[in-house]
Amino acid sequence: MFNITEKKLLASNIKLIKVYAPLISKKNKPGQFVVLRIDESGERIPLTIVDSDPKEGLITLIFQEAGKTTAKLGQLKEGDVIHDILGPLGNPSEIKTYGQVVIIGGGVGTAVAYPEAKALKTVGNRVITIIGARNKDLLILEDEMKTLSDEFYITTDDGSKGHHGFVTDVLKKLIEEKRKIDLVVAIGPTVMMRAIAGITRPYNIKTLVSLNPIMIDGTGMCGGCRVTVGNSTKFVCVDGPEFDGHLVDFDQLLTRQRIYLDDEIKALKLYEKDIGEKRGCQA
Amino acid sequence: MSSLTKPKSEFTNPKPSNRQAMPKQPPKERGHNFNEVALGYNIDLAQAEADRCLQCPKPTCREGCPVEIDIPTFIRLVKEGNLDEAIRIIREKNNLPAITGRVCPVENQCESHCVLCKAGKPIAIGALERFVANHDNKKELRKVVVDKNGKVRKIVAVVGSGPASLTVAGDLSKFGYDVTVFEALHEAGGVLLYGIPEFRLPKSIVRDEVEYVKSLGVKIETNVLVGRTVTIDELFSMGFEAIFIGAGAGTPYFLNLPGENLNGVYSANEFLTRTNMMKAYKFPEYDTPIKIGKKVAVIGGGNVAMDSARTALRLGADEVTIIYRRSRDELPARREEVENAEEEGIRFLFLTSPTRFLGNEKGWVKGVECIKMQLGEPDESGRRRPIPVKESEFLIDADVVIIAIGQRPNPLITQATPGLKADSQGILKIDENLKTSRDRVWAGGDITSGEATVINAMGMGKKAAKLIHKFLSENQAHAI
Ligand SMILES: Cc1cc2nc3c(=O)[nH]c(=O)nc-3n(C[C@H](O)[C@H](O)[C@H](O)COP(=O)(O)OP(=O)(O)OC[C@H]3O[C@@H](n4cnc5c(N)ncnc54)[C@H](O)[C@@H]3O)c2cc1C
Ligand SMILES: Cc1cc2nc3c(=O)[nH]c(=O)nc-3n(C[C@H](O)[C@H](O)[C@H](O)COP(=O)(O)OP(=O)(O)OC[C@H]3O[C@@H](n4cnc5c(N)ncnc54)[C@H](O)[C@@H]3O)c2cc1C
Ligand code: SF4
Ligand code: SF4
Ligand code: FES
User: Fold this and answer.
1) Residue B18 DSSP label
2) Would you give per-residue pLDDT tens digits along chain B (480 residues)?
3) CATH for B27-139?
4) A230 in the Ramachandran plot: left (φ > 0), alpha (ψ -120 to 50) or beta?
5) Atom of ligand 5 nearest to the CA of A220
6) B278: distance to nearest CA of chain A, Å?
7) Among A54, A147, B177, B221, which is least packed, fewest CB within 10 Å?
């Protein structure tokens, strides 16, 4: 079954686990994700496969505790079992030589951006990385990203580390300095991706974003993950998760992400009462 | 039909003529719970019904059953009170009787071929089958009739775990093969599990029947999406000698109307999956939420639309309306389900089609703009084509909308399998022997026929098992 073999705390509410899932570890490519269900009464949630080790049959997941399911996942220990993991899902990122690429990771989105950054570097791109978080304690994969990058920037909203401000500030500066940018990959909160697409659009810089709608099956069966891209409806789980940021209807995505907000808060509160813990809702 | 009724005296057998009605939960009560609507015969009702069977020497009823159950024999055994033998007779042909006894469209299948149909009172074959199957589940009388002695076992992979796949897998296992089923979701059963609601087909019954198939020796691997987790070609290189694809028709159609992506607009698949498979009606005990509408509009007129509407009612909606573009006579849903829905208070808007969905300032659906339709000339399907009536638009309020206008096969497997041919809708091309365009790959069920029925899928599964068996007994091992 899907055994947790390793667990690490990366930042105050961001955790890393390695899970035994041999078939998935063999097939995974950067950009793909899994849908998991912790136990019999659990919901199904998507998480990106950050890394895989086919020899040991392991996959690495990094998650932020946002609501009940990720909080429950955070309670599991090494040796515990996740009931169901399906994957790898979604289309792999298109890894090719573009030239100079800017990879932007916001919050836990850095975890999602990491495998793609690594792959883009491996095939010979010059990689500029910008990672950002609310404060320095919430930064993740700093060393990993730094090592693979040709140029590396950190931003924090409160200025506790790196540039005081947002990841978008650094991108704007690079553009204003007339740096050659062949591709921007932006992965993080939806509002961040919307802002970045807004910045690059007037310059016609190709911008890829990785969308994170609410999902159930992850196989194209429910249509719950649908989002308007260009003039058509796409199912993010099978048509994505990466899309041309200039074509995504981010406002619709933001609205659809809030469908169950009231229920999610209720579920988290009940759960916190259950485990007798106090943890603020990240919503 | 009754105007054509022949006088009863024409029948040689002076049997009681009354078809025993299926006891049901009263409509008022059942609209508020997820318990099964049909309560089932007791032994007295079953025997009274069995007693009506004429035990025809040439039983036409069997022609209407795609899996060829020996109907008169099992009915006679019910009459004699020998239920152990009755279930054995049924299971000889049908691995999933507790399911078919509940969901077969009997009015188009076995019962429509019963000689008593002419008198408008066919034997309630489905209800009797359900009764016998229930008896079996209670007594756990299953006898595994697998004979694997001395045979060289070949291994067969089955993709998907709906009724087509469960039937192929069960039968091939009975023939002595080593069968593994690969299912994408976290539990086996296909539409039986995630689509058809609890109140028509309790999930405990689906689980029991899946357990039965496992008891025949079938291995079921859940959480394997063929095409992503493993491909068809990789299954061959893992040593499988033959593959059956029964992946169903699971991708929902949308209308492509403005406002369709508003919050509160669901595909029937999502709405039913949240409720059935994920048990959202037990939220927060179960973690998956669902939006419970006050005014729910369901678009469509098939079984899926009826199931969605009746599910919405049970979740607690005040008012549920089915919007259908033709008239009541053309509803593709089973008559019995339409009547059940009407009894429960579901409203129907016939000759009506949606034109767009309206939202509030927060991005939630608040209404459906509709247009009136009239019926014109018959189309390819023989049904009269609905035509919009100019300037007849009107608005209805709705805070949840469920789109139930059909499904097509998921293209994943076709995309990931070189040489596997499908049409533009994703329906796999097969020959009369259920062979796909790929060597050693067979297919059946909804992925080859489009949305059909459980028993059609099972019939194809039965046939595929025989054909795969024939092929594997005549052919050398697959060169890897
Ligand atoms: C393809 C894909 C890959 C993803 N990869 C990762 C990953 O690697 N690491 C990670 O931490 N998260 C990832 N996510 C997001 C993750 O799935 C959600 O955080 C998770 O479902 C939240 O579940 P929950 O029950 O804990 O919280 P919920 O109770 O469902 O939600 C709590 C709060 O989070 C918000 N929320 C809910 N779902 C999402 C979502 N999908 N995206 C953003 N906010 C959401 C809600 O609005 C609410 O405010 C990914 C999502 C997708 C679609
Ligand atoms: C709501 C609803 C109500 C219905 N009511 C009735 C009724 O009353 N009577 C009746 O006779 N029929 C009814 N039907 C139709 C009937 O359920 C289907 O015709 C039947 O289930 C088709 O069976 P199948 O074996 O072809 O596939 P399905 O039951 O669709 O099963 C296919 C399975 O394959 C899995 N799968 C798909 N792709 C992959 C992949 N790539 N890898 C692995 N697994 C995969 C799916 O997850 C699914 O579990 C109803 C359908 C619905 C949706
Ligand atoms: S399986 Fe269906 S068609 Fe066959 S006898 Fe039973 S109810 Fe009738
Ligand atoms: S046709 Fe009708 S009456 Fe005759 S054997 Fe079949 S079920 Fe009985
Ligand atoms: S999650 Fe169901 S279709 Fe994408």
Assistant:
1) P
2) 344 444 444 444 445 568 999 999 999 999 999 999 999 999 999 999 999 999 999 999 999 999 999 999 999 999 999 999 999 999 989 989 999 999 999 999 999 999 998 888 999 999 999 999 988 654 444 444 444 444 446 799 999 999 999 999 999 999 989 999 999 999 999 999 999 999 999 999 999 999 999 999 999 999 999 999 999 999 999 989 999 999 999 999 999 999 999 999 999 999 999 999 999 999 999 999 999 999 999 999 999 999 999 999 999 999 999 999 999 988 999 888 999 999 999 999 999 999 999 999 999 999 999 999 999 888 887 888 899 999 999 999 999 999 999 999 999 999 999 999 999 999 999 999 999 999 999 999 999 999 899 999 999 999 999 999 999 988 866 554
3) 1.10.1060.10
4) left
5) 3
6) 7
7) A147
Q: Is A219 part of the contact surface with chain B (CB cutoff 8 Å)?
A: yes
What's the CATH fold of domain A2-89? Elongation Factor Tu (Ef-tu); domain 3 (2.40.30)
Is some CB atom of chain B closer than 8 A to the CB atom of A252?
Answer: yes
Indicate if ligand 1 lies below 6 Å from the C-beta of A215: yes
Ligand 3: residue whose CA is nearest its atom 7? B126
Is A221 in Cβ contact with B289 (below 8 Å)? Answer: no
Residues of chain B contacting residue A268, judged by C-beta atoms under 8 Å apart: none
CA dist B297 and A257 (Å) reads 22
How many of the other CB atoms lie within 10 Å of CB of B157?
Answer: 25
Indicate the fold that domain B155-250+408-474 takes in CATH.
Answer: FAD/NAD(P)-binding domain (3.50.50)
Q: Where in chain B is the domain with CATH 3.50.50.60?
A: 155-250+408-474, 254-405
Beta strand B295-299 pairing with A151-156: unpaired
- CATH architecture classification, A100-257: 3-Layer(aba) Sandwich (3.40)
Neighbouring C-beta atoms of residue A64, cutoff 10 Å: 21
Q: State the span(s) of chain A assigned CATH 3.40.50.80.
A: 100-257
**CATH 2.40.30.10 domain span(s) along chain A:** 2-89
Query: Angle at the Cα of A264 (from A258 to A265), degrees rounded to 5?
Result: 105
Does residue A134 sit at the B interface (CB-CB below 8 Å)?
no
Give residues 45 to 84 of A whose Cβ lies within 8 Å of B. Answer: 68-69, 83-84
Count Cα atoms within 13 angstroms, Cβ side, for A273: 6
- For residue B61 and ligand 3, the question of a CB distance below 6 A is answered with no
Give the ligand at the shortest distance from the Cα of B75: 4
> Is B115's C-beta closer than 6 angstroms to any atom of ligand 4?
yes
| Chain B CB within 8 Å of residue A264 CB | yes
- State the pairing for strand pair B352-359/B365-378: antiparallel
**Residue A246 contacts B where some CB pair is shorter than 8 Å:** no
Query: For residues A18, A20, A26 and A29, what is the CA-based torsion angle, rounded to 10 degrees?
Result: -30
* A213 Cβ below 6 A of ligand 1: yes
Question: Is the beta carbon of A283 within 6 A of some atom in ligand 1?
Answer: yes
Ligand 1 in reach of A34 Cβ (< 6 A): no
Q: Do B273 and A217 touch (CB under 8 A)?
A: yes
Whats the size of chain A, residue-wise? Answer: 283
Where is B368: in which H helix or E strand? strand B365-378
The CATH architecture that domain B254-405 belongs to is 3-Layer(bba) Sandwich (3.50)
What is the ipTM for the molecules in this complex?
A: 0.92
**Chain B contacts in chain A segment 11-50 (CB below 8 A):** 23-24, 27, 37, 41-44
- Report which bound ligand comes closest to the CA of A215: 5
Q: Give the residue carrying structure tokens 């509408």.
A: B293
CB atoms under 10 Å from CB of B376, counted, come to 10
- Helix, strand, coil in percent for chain A, rounding step 5: 30, 30, 35
Report residue B246: phi and psi, to 5°: -130, 55
